[in-house]
Automatic annotation (TrEMBL):
InterPro entries: Bact_Sigma-Reg, GAF, GAF-like_dom_sf, PAS_4, PPM-type-like_dom_sf, PPM-type_phosphatase-like_dom. This is Serine phosphatase RsbU (Regulator of sigma subunit). SUPFAM superfamilies: GAF domain-like, PP2C-like. Keywords: Hydrolase. The lineage of its organism: Bacteria, Bacillati, Actinomycetota, Actinomycetes, Geodermatophilales. Residues 376-590 form the PPM-type phosphatase domain. GO terms for molecular function: phosphatase activity. It comes from Blastococcus saxobsidens. The keyword Signal does not apply. It holds the Pfam family PAS_4. The keyword Transmembrane helix does not apply. Residues 193-343 form the GAF domain.
Amino acid sequence: MAARSGRWGRTTLDRHLEELITGAPRTELQRMVLEHDWSRTPLGPQEEWSPTLSAAVSTALNSRFPFLLMWGPELVMVYNDDYAPMLGARHPEALGRPAPEVWADIWADLEAMVAEVMGGRATYSEDLPLVMHRHGFEEETYFSFSFSPVVEPGGRVVGLLDTVVETTHRVLAARRLSVLQRLGSLPRASHGDTAEAVATALGVLADAGADCPLGLVYLVDGDDDTPRLVAGHGVAVEEELATDVLAERVRWAVATGRPQTVTGLSTLLPGLSSSAGPAGRSDVDTAVVLPLTAAGAEQPIGALVLGASPRLPLDEDYRIFMALAAGQVAATVADAQAVAAERRRAEERARSDQARAQFFTDVAVTLQRAVLGPTVLPGGFAVHYEPATGTLEVGGDWYDVVELSDGAYGVVVGDVVGRGLAAAAVMGQLRSAGRALLLESRSPGHVLSALDGFAALIPGAAVSTVFCAIIDPFTGRLRYSSAGHPPAVLVDVDGGVRLLEEGSALPLAVAHRGERPESEVLLPPGSTLLLYTDGLVERRDEALDEGIGRAADALVEGQHLGPAELSALLTERLLGDAPDDDVAFVLYRCG
């Protein structure tokens, strides 16, 4: 066998794996795998790898979906760029190491599944709770994944492939939305008892111990500017709180109207613990002091102290949830105070109603975007999501823009029947599946055909409508397929309007599955494409065609505008009358 030509050199046989990795330039993980000294691992040198191992590694490294390969009796780990963030601080040392060592903290949860796969049976887990130590603390996480056996010719299982997506963000968003929904549906404080109103709101937060292990409400009493502790959970409020630092931060938050973060609570308030959950109990060390600002008030009326779970990072989403909870507590307190002050009742209630309506909109938009996830748009695109007016529920409308490896764009707009957490959960699954399918397929019809089978397995996914398209910006070619969705609108530079109604079939999972039809059209330079959900064009006592016509007229009127400005024009023209249904749309301007 030929010798290796230096540390970074490759023999002819050693280049076999390198030739199986597509795309240029190489990603960081691809380079790490190619340059790793595999001779020091149970896998041995690359030139001695079996064709099955080489093919499995290339499958993982060529995918844009998170993949982990565990190989051999030792379950040696090889993974791709999209899997690496799940490892946290364990990366890059995890590469080439046995999985039971790398994931020692959760191996008890995985070992039985791994044994089942090595016996030849695939497994699937959805939103599996796992407690792992990957960022310096014991973290509550959730994952959906499938373990699939890798079989050599002859039928011997030699490894397993882990197809995985971390769902922690979505699970936490849904859980926190449920808390905010309960806060938002509290009855009005017609009794005028501020203490009772505070206790009711704190009762909701006490039930949410996984996110709010500690809650204290301080209120400013009359002319006395010193905030007074009114009620709390997670600590015996009737006892003297020897927490000068906490009291000082409360006064500062009330005086400035700005939140404060307090650490060291495990020393200041010994004995605090989070509610029992998948991560178990642990001392609470951090809390956020949030000013309670009521609508129309010049100064905060008090402060809400919320303890942060020691099992979760105190990130931006967590702080947004806390701020929204504080906003609802403030609205509850202000409502009670308005009832007690009879002569100001009408004015205060009107302002409180306005604050509640704005709160509902803020929560719906924030939580829907949290479920959709951040989208970095390529040039020429603009997107918009808007919830139905006056509701705290998320919905089932979604959009996605996916950059494909050949420079094309996959675009999807869909609508799940119903509202609330159930519809949002179905939407999240369909969106994730659609994105994965787009990354592996270049056929809109194939994507929707595969979603048919996927939707048939998910309660509540049937009758969902989806419009899927693939845009080639270099040739201007658009291929599309529609599963019962309203037609896309194409407007050329001369104002000609075309509805993309070909390639249409029934909604998802409503009939015997088969190949979905698709159609193709050329996008003239400067033309504008609009994909949307029915909330944009559907109004009571009006034919759907009239709403689509209004959308087309707005596109023609705004042909001279850029995508972002045209999005604002569409919103003004079509959504100024407060839609009864959620709205999602995607705009594309052909270069």
